[in-house]
Write the structure tokens for this entry.
Amino acid sequence: MGPSNDVALIVGGGPGISSSCARLFAESGMRVGIAARDPDKPVLQKLEKAHGVHRYACDAAQPAAVESLFQNVVRDLGPPTLVVHNIDGRTLDIFRKPIADADPSLVLETLRNSAFSAFLVGQQAARLMRENEPNASGTKGTIIFTNASAALKGFPLSGAFAMACQAKAGLAESMARELMPQGIHVANVPIDAAIGWRQEDGTRAHRLAGVAVDDNMADPDRIAEAYLQLHRQHRSTWAFEVVLRPWVEKW
Amino acid sequence: MGPSNDVALIVGGGPGISSSCARLFAESGMRVGIAARDPDKPVLQKLEKAHGVHRYACDAAQPAAVESLFQNVVRDLGPPTLVVHNIDGRTLDIFRKPIADADPSLVLETLRNSAFSAFLVGQQAARLMRENEPNASGTKGTIIFTNASAALKGFPLSGAFAMACQAKAGLAESMARELMPQGIHVANVPIDAAIGWRQEDGTRAHRLAGVAVDDNMADPDRIAEAYLQLHRQHRSTWAFEVVLRPWVEKW
Amino acid sequence: MGPSNDVALIVGGGPGISSSCARLFAESGMRVGIAARDPDKPVLQKLEKAHGVHRYACDAAQPAAVESLFQNVVRDLGPPTLVVHNIDGRTLDIFRKPIADADPSLVLETLRNSAFSAFLVGQQAARLMRENEPNASGTKGTIIFTNASAALKGFPLSGAFAMACQAKAGLAESMARELMPQGIHVANVPIDAAIGWRQEDGTRAHRLAGVAVDDNMADPDRIAEAYLQLHRQHRSTWAFEVVLRPWVEKW
Amino acid sequence: MGPSNDVALIVGGGPGISSSCARLFAESGMRVGIAARDPDKPVLQKLEKAHGVHRYACDAAQPAAVESLFQNVVRDLGPPTLVVHNIDGRTLDIFRKPIADADPSLVLETLRNSAFSAFLVGQQAARLMRENEPNASGTKGTIIFTNASAALKGFPLSGAFAMACQAKAGLAESMARELMPQGIHVANVPIDAAIGWRQEDGTRAHRLAGVAVDDNMADPDRIAEAYLQLHRQHRSTWAFEVVLRPWVEKW
């Protein structure tokens, strides 16, 4: 199975890591699907036009929705060989709040959208990939969980996000220990940085307007490269956890 | 505020760590409450008779129930100075299952019963404790989360438990960084062992009948001692994480 | 073997943790020895007078000197049941220096004084303790390594100290895995703080004159208490690593 | 500065990772030097003949020898842009020995050969690289420390190796925090596996004769690829620590 049989599914569909992955994977010869709550966002429509990326509507915190998603991907593209879970599930409302003031319903929602959706996506990927033939690197499939600094350290005033990120890390670690000896590469990739995405004109932007973006922020195109390298790693030397951080980041 | 003004609340009510804590804290002069889904279990009734422990019904995964619990404790015993969250939330059904075969509803239930209940209990404790006067060790209150080996390592075939335990660890870490500078001691205590509880006759037992219990298993009376020591630590030298493990345990 | 048969040896002899340990251990009924390059320092002479502490001259980076030390302790006090390695081996000259400017001979000296001396002391302790009878807590002996923040994180501009502290942590971990199943409790205790020692008049001081000392700095008397608790832990629930840090410390 | 200006220096010269790195780096257009105690080993002579690799004699535990090495490399090849420290310094004599039976002189030798030599090599690399111009990825240079499982976990019966590996990890971490904001990429790469090197005929071998080598062991050619990827990472997304482990490895 060469790259031309590679099928990538990216769950989570924003203009940052997801879009960079979709572009790079398509350019590398993969058939690519991308799933988002709203698959009609302009940024995703452009990916379809420019790169033939298939768009899927999916609330990844719903078991039935995730099951359908994978069935549709198999039908349209074939069984996935590379699945990226790229939802961090945080809402701005849960940040910078004392624990005493956090809204319990948002905390539970964060856990569901981030960690539970990671479980649902990972489970479907595992079910399908174990039936794949190993490729030239001995890999039946690769499952990558995008994670955040909070997976490495529980910062004050953001307990819910620490819970979600560390739950996702625990899931990834358990899955790696189970699935790697079956030929499925599982990776947890905490991005220890703000992300400045690439705009159409090649310049970069940050979700907070007016923030200067430079090499001080993680470049999602480079993150996508790292994911592709993980997917292509030979099974004699797999990396499970890779923390990516800009050169000037404090840690 | 001396020990005689200490009020302890233990959330989770089994015959192991919770009972040992209730006994030791009561013997140390604290007023003690214990909360469980079923507060009428014989083991809890005995704690009431022998040690004056107050029993409370509470589903700790429900925000309103946890809020009521703390109000009732304040009314009956006064504001808590020591709160122990001792629910691991696992069901036997989620263990030793390949990720592909896990039941999503049990996974979500595990997250709710363990990690989300820890958030709810920790939040109520934080709200009340910040109003306490510091005791002789400079402590306004102590919040202890009992945790498990899975907080340290995501074992294969138990992804849901890894998620729950690491989420709880992340919560504890975030709370510690926020609350310790406010005089509230937060601790995460992974018990890296099977637990053999003490029966009425002083002998010890394990939940699986017929398993020999000895120093090879963690003794909940000793765990309770460690919790009391954490509560009494001076704020110039607080420990956040303490892993307790029997001498013969592999790690 | 009760406390009255306890023999403590503290290697490293300053006015901070070593002195606090010597006082507390003696007050707890142990026979106590303390070893230092210069055992005639006034602070050690006072320990002898006030608490009957035996003083020993020892360069703990010299294999023969450490072997002699333990022979002399056995002769004078009996086989040790509690050994504390409390040398951090840093010199001010190795701090706050770019790696490019570090003096290689000081780096090697730091490794020898800190990590290699920890090996030598731990080795002699292990040789003797395995012959001890277990005490009431099932412990043949306790070996405690005082460590520092650099054991947890390699800070910039202090590479040599990071090397020494992490080497000591690695040694402690290897020894714990080997010796705990033989009844010898091994602990690594990073003190994540500046230490403000207690002076004769009860007030506290810091090695840099004019620095205000309060609960913001670790109190060596409290550290000694934590060590005694570790020594008395029952072997069903041993802690290996305990990080002690003041309530207001950033981490 | 493109790849054609890249100068790689590999310190440590065996038939495994060092040889694979030398080959791959040379094939990628770099000028390559390799340093070993005995640079006349047949495996190194072949690298010279086949790939133009320069050979240097160096005892990397000697400050003056390491300083000379870098001067000679600058003279022959130019200032290095990629330096790999690939000495683990262990001798078979220090393994599988109870701590009580370890030979102190071998322990100190292991520390010197592994951790201290890493400091010496890292220091010279840092001195030179800070004068380099950044390449297209914004990198003035890359320093990679090969490490081992013992950097992650202190195994029983191998305390000296745990000390050496964790010291090296601490050094790498301190250097990364200092040097990355100056444009020098520092990486610690624990290989959590046995290594089966590639022989001339393409088959693989292990240092213990008769051990079957397959994907169960790390392939040094793949490790070299990972090093090259680290060197080429853009500075907006640098990885510091990458653990490489075969798919079937227990961890």
